[in-house]
Structures are given as structure tokens and as C-alpha cells.
Amino acid sequence: MRLQGKTALVTGAGSGFGRGIAQAFAREGAWVAVLDINAEAAEAVAGETGGLALACDVTQGAQVADAVDKTRAAFGGLDIVVNNAGWTVPNGPLLATDEAAFRRIYDVNVLSIFHMCHAVLPWWREQRAGVMINVGSTAGSRPRPGLTWYNSSKGAVNTLTRSLAVELAPDGIRVNAIAPVMGETGMLERFMGCPDTPENRARFLATIPLGRLSQPRDIANAALYLASNEADFITGVILDVDGGRTV
Question: Model confidence over 43-102: pLDDT tens digits?
């Protein structure tokens, strides 16, 4: 198994891409800490994967640090972190987003990575090993209208990923990102800005050469590769998982 003996922590793992990643990691032999702001969702996924469920608001540094400490105590270490938790306002006019919503976007999508770095990097540097995977979006490189503030937050994730990769490479720490195209998750209608009808979905599918939305298994397979020893010479990469959307 590709992650046998490894320990991993996945944020936003109670549903969607995060759940798919947690399931794939567990299937490949990893012990997985399932973090989600929804404690019941975290418990459900931990039950499926045999992992550790932790309620955590990733915008709160103290909660992130506590989750990392509990993961290390439960598993005896932590090898892989996936910063998957994300949030957006519904697709719409950019001036319709108020400051509170803008801050929420950046707190969940960007500040959460800041908190995670402070929680894990000191001892990853001591052990000279660690893998961080950030779940970004094609919105960070090929933005759609109506999601300007979300797009910019994912652009920040892309730049942050590359900068972390360069700075942490001498410490033996790899940092990569996955950039999914719009996916079949609970946030789909927010991204579309309209009801998920066959007609509305067809408009979005027309922009994806392979003709479908991303699915949790697509993102999980990419994360599995980047987390594994097969990718031990890969860092600073933004891996588009997009059916050709950004070509």
C-alpha cells in the first residue's frame, strides 16, 4: 500500500473532496485524522476510515494547533497534511460581497494554511520531513466571472504553495497544490450561482474539454500521488485536475 505506516491530517474532510481524500489515504494504509467544523460529519468519515475525528474551525489558530497535537498523540507522529477546507460566497456581482464575507473567504482559504504552518513546521523542520498539500482551484489561474474574491484567494494559495516549497525544500519538506475544476460537491450551486439543473450544468460542462465536473475520486487520486514516495522529487507544483479546463 502506497501510504503504509504514514499518518495524515485532512481538513474539511467531513464531505466532498476532503472525504474522498481521507478514504483514499486510509485505503492505502495511512492513519487519518479527519478534521471538520461539523463534528458529526467528521465522526461519520472517521467511522468509515478507522481514523480520528476532530472538530476544528481552521480559521482559529488555537484549534488547529490542538488538532495537530491530538493527531500526533494518537498516531505517534504526522507525516502528511492536506489543507482542503474551503469556502466561497455564491457566484454573483463582486460588490455584493460585504467585508465580513470577504474576510471569511480569506480566513478559511488562506489564513487556515498560515495556522497549519505554525502548527506543523517547527517539528517537521526538526525531523527534516513532511508533506503539505493545499487544495486550491482552477479559479486561481483561470478565473470565472462572479467569483472574484474567491478567485483571488485561490491565487494566493497557488503563490503561497510555491513560496513555501522553495523556502522549505532545504528542510526536506515538500509542498504542492491541487487545482480542481468545479466539482460535484456541496458547494456546486455556490460556484454556479444558479440552480443545478441539467440546462445550467450543461453551460459549465461546455467549458471543460473532457465533458464532466471533477469528482472526489479525481482529487483523491491526485492527493494520493503527491503524498506518496512516488512524488518524492515533486515540490512547488500546482497540479490542475480539471479535464482540460485551463489548457
Answer: 999 999 999 999 999 999 999 999 999 999 999 999 999 999 999 998 899 999 999 999
106 is catalytic: no
Give how far Cα 107 sits from Cα of 32, 45, 73, 120, 194, Å: 24, 24, 27, 18, 25
Backbone region of residue 206 per phi and psi (left: phi > 0; alpha: psi in -120 to 50; beta: other values): alpha
> Considering the entire predicted model, what is its pTM?
0.95
pLDDT in tens, 202-229: 888 888 999 999 999 999 999 999 999 9
Return the ∠ at Cα 151 (arms to 89 and 234), rounded to 5°: 125
Question: Which one of 17, 31, 87, 150 is the catalytic residue?
Answer: 150
Nine-digit cell at 56?
476544528
Top-tier CATH class for 7-240: alpha beta
Three-state DSSP class for 136? coil
Residue 114 to residue 190: CA distance in whole angstroms: 25
The structural domains of the chain, with segments of one domain joined by +, span 7-240
